[in-house]
Amino acid sequence: MATENKPEGYKKPEGYKKPFNNYFNQPKPDNKDIVFGIQSVLETLRAGKEIDKILVQRELGSLEVLEFARMRGIPVQKVPSEKLDRITRKNHQGVIAFVSAINYAKLENVVADVYEKGEVPLLLVLDRITDVRNFGAIARTAECTGVHAIVIPSKGAAQINADAMKTSSGALNFLPVCREDNLFLTVKYLQNSGIQVVACSEKLSKNIYDIDFTVPTAIIMGSEEDGISEELLRSVDELATIPMAGRVGSLNVSVATGVILYEAVRKRL
Q: Which residues does the annotated region (Disordered) include (predicted)?
């Protein structure tokens, strides 16, 4: 199998095994968006289910649920009881877990597998995209353009629920999603793996049409509210913008993502 796109010095992650489609996101049967109640959430954690986040009532003290969540790296938010009551009127006992509609992939395995296939990596990093429908639309375009994986932060990202699955038109069944604790460190990992990182924002000066997308590339798109964080902007290899001719100063993030991804496709063709 060809491996000519593997950068010099690149090494497979320790313990890597060539996947057999096992990082694709298969929908979970009879999945519900939330699980509530201390024992129910605890059993969900013990079963190894993918959980986006757990909300815990502020007044509650030490819980076994919190320890399990810490060990598995699941975000926990302390919230007032009123917020939990707005989510469900049933007896939540101060604990609600949001169950993901997908299984997350390991970024190291995705990158290694792409190189093993002799393909040129094309990855999409979403910095705090919080709107579920924006995320679903982005995933749909990403799958259509051959993106190998979407990378999201473990905190501050849209919940991948039934709405996201529906908006993606099923794309999330086939497109790996990787959840990372620290996007700054993720960018460094990608760069060390021979992948250029391109940040796209309307605030930048270089035109996206001047970027070489034929090389291994990860594209960063920023949040609906404030775009890409300054820390990430300082760490990337290229800063690019989509040229605007009208009076409106910006595009919806899902539309902007489609524009830049199809420019990458055009360059690679």
A: 1-23
Q: With CA atoms as reference, report the closest residue to 199 among 260, 144, 255.
A: 260
How many Å apart are CA 81 and CA 87, to the nearest integer? 10
Contact 113, 12 (CB under 8 A): no
Tokens 């009123």 correspond to 82
Q: 6 lies in a domain?
A: no
- Let me know whether 159 and 64 are in one domain: no
Burial degree of 269 (CB within 10 A; 0-12, 13-18, 19+): exposed
In our burial notation (b when 16+ CB lie closer than 10 A, e otherwise), range 208-230 reads beebebebbbbbbbbbeeebbbe
Render pLDDT for 37-54 as a digit per residue (tens, 0 to 9). Answer: 999 999 888 888 888 889
The model's pLDDT over 45-88, given as tens digits with 9 standing for 90+, comes to 888 888 888 999 998 877 889 988 888 888 898 999 999 999 98
**111/71 same-domain check:** no
Percent of the chain with pLDDT over 90: 55
CATH of the domain at 125: 3.40.1280.10
Please give the residue range of the domain that contains residue 131. 107-268
